[in-house]
Design a protein that fits this description.
The structure is a homodimer of 400-residue chains.
Chain A lengths: L1 H5 L2 H26 L4 H12 L11 H20 L3 H6 L1 H26 L3 H10 L5 H10 L6 H28 L5 H34 L6 H20 L3 H13 L6 H25 L8 H25 L5 H10 L4 H13 L5 H25 L1 H6 L7
Helix pairs in contact in A: 2-3, 2-13, 3-13, 4-12, 4-13, 6-7, 6-9, 6-14, 7-9, 7-16, 8-9, 9-10, 9-15, 9-16, 10-11, 10-12, 11-12, 14-15, 14-17, 15-17, 16-17
Chain lengths: 400, 400
Amino acid sequence: MFLASATPSDHLNILVTLSIMWVSAKLMAEVFERLKQPAVVGEILAGVLIGQSVLGWVEPTETTSTLSEIGVIFLLFTVGLETKPSSIFRVGKKAAMVAVLGVVVPFVCGYLLMKAWGSSNVESLFIGTAMVATSVGITARVLGQLGLLEEDTSRIILGAAIIDDILGLLILAVVSSVAEGRIDYFEILLTAGLAIAFTVFVAFIGAPAVTKMAPRIENLRVENSFFVFAVGLCLSLSIAAAYIGIAAIIGAFLAGMALAEATEDKTTIHKQMNGLTEFLVPFFFVSIGMQLRLDVFRDPTVLALTILVFLVAVITKLVGAGVGALSMGLRRAGQVGMGMVPRGEVGVVVAQIGFSLAVINDQLYAVVLFMAVATTLVAPPFLKILFAKEIKTRTPASGA
Amino acid sequence: MFLASATPSDHLNILVTLSIMWVSAKLMAEVFERLKQPAVVGEILAGVLIGQSVLGWVEPTETTSTLSEIGVIFLLFTVGLETKPSSIFRVGKKAAMVAVLGVVVPFVCGYLLMKAWGSSNVESLFIGTAMVATSVGITARVLGQLGLLEEDTSRIILGAAIIDDILGLLILAVVSSVAEGRIDYFEILLTAGLAIAFTVFVAFIGAPAVTKMAPRIENLRVENSFFVFAVGLCLSLSIAAAYIGIAAIIGAFLAGMALAEATEDKTTIHKQMNGLTEFLVPFFFVSIGMQLRLDVFRDPTVLALTILVFLVAVITKLVGAGVGALSMGLRRAGQVGMGMVPRGEVGVVVAQIGFSLAVINDQLYAVVLFMAVATTLVAPPFLKILFAKEIKTRTPASGA
């Protein structure tokens, strides 16, 4: 009573809001793990549950959206940490084929579907873009849990998913500029050039430089010097990427990739990052769910469009990415294609940007969110079936 | 250019603010480690540097103060994690003597000093309260770095520092109620009773219960189940403590202590918590520094009071706690007394609450902050001298 009133009660309210978000996310994660479904889907549904659609316990504020953004930055950073540039180069050619076809087919089909539905050009471009990117975090987690990370197909999926992300974010930059009504081709080319230069610079010059510098970083006096350096690099490159014109999360991903070789044998930093993301990332997933408006699905037209968009998202990615891997045989092509289906956080980020630009409305936002969540939900059981032969012949390793 | 403008630029600004806070804290921590001074002092000074007093790069917002509060909650939680209830009971009697005298002498002398200086009753009570608590985190860190955690004196210092914290926060609850002008003795007793009941319940019933439950927690399906449970317990008890009427941080500390036995052998959870606190805690220290107004020290009267308060803070703790340990001989009493001198974050929390209640003004706030920082700065070199004999006879262990 004394300190509760002594501390400004606003502070207590914020603390209560954040605790409700976090605890409900983890309770739902537990429920979904027991149902053998991805925990991520449980955390998003926790947000739906406590948000405006159902219980109305929490509302988004500056603080919750900041925590959400820091969360997704560190999520992509840790995915980068597990992605050595060399491991992408090795399967480079096949992964690039899978990535490009896995980008072009969903983008074109998504765009055409929306045009046929009667949407505007800009709306259709945004829905197409939201269908492009593969959620590499979710894919990696599912493959790791099945003990399949060492498979050739897994490496191709991971490599292609990363190229996907970069292509997707470039497309997003272009589409965003179109949405803002200033289609300055020179500026688009400049941004694309800067983005590619930034990516190439970090991957080819930054990464080896950091790997060389690693022993010196260890010699810094500050406690946990390597972790401190890693977080500092992640924050700096996130901001640099945002200033250059690409999303902050791609800067974070590249920062992680630059550190991947240097941190390969260091379990301590992985556990430290793990503690940080375990706390921060749920705010991202819950915030996503909090924004979903379930009432739009009462409209049968919207419901029909939702199902259509979902089906097109699954089929185009499966076929597009699958054709890219067809030289490996039909079964493996199916594995690769299904592995690329989850859209997860990247599809949501695209939807959020389109929403914040007022280019897509509440209803389309809900449609895209549903697509991102449902593709994430549908892939894991199919992956289990498609990889049944590989799962039988190896004892499942511990999760990624 | 595209996404930077597509993402609301507010978001980028907040990200830049947080990055400046965090990176400057760590740069100053590195500088201070090289000067063989506590990193914590460097992080607070980083806040002074980038705050209103010097560079004016950042301003406190709802988001920075929330991160600061979450930071101090997890800081006290990790201190609790390293504090087994049984380790306090073992040195209980001596530690209790040290704690009580180390609380009474600074409180009374601080109060009398301020009264003699002409301050109001409430102001004097607050300054006295700010002089009470020992920063157990800083003390433990310094002793660990010197390789002295196994010494008898170290155990007494740690035990006494913890009792100190609890006594200090109880005094704070009482003083806050006085400051709010409603000296309802029944309510004060009720709050004190509730606080003690809450503390005793968590320490004697909660801790063994959690230790027993530990294997079941491990069996939860959610990833990193033990870490997730720990964070959930920390958030829940923080909120419970705030509702009961004691500070959220004491709830966090008790949550940590309840988990101390169960997490003793678990390096993973310690590393995960370490990653979380490495990221969050600097926001607390930097926020402290950001609030300091250096210009108040231009007034020679304020400067004189600052020096006086600092000297009284050092001497009263040294003598009070020292007398409590006098049965161990003069040298050991000196070790214990000096080990209790750092006020660190707890003194600052008291000052913040007094400031937010408008009970103490800018000038007194600056005086107390200076006292908290300076006592933290002055203790480590003296501890090295007082422990010279023990340091010689043992090879320094790795840090705590």
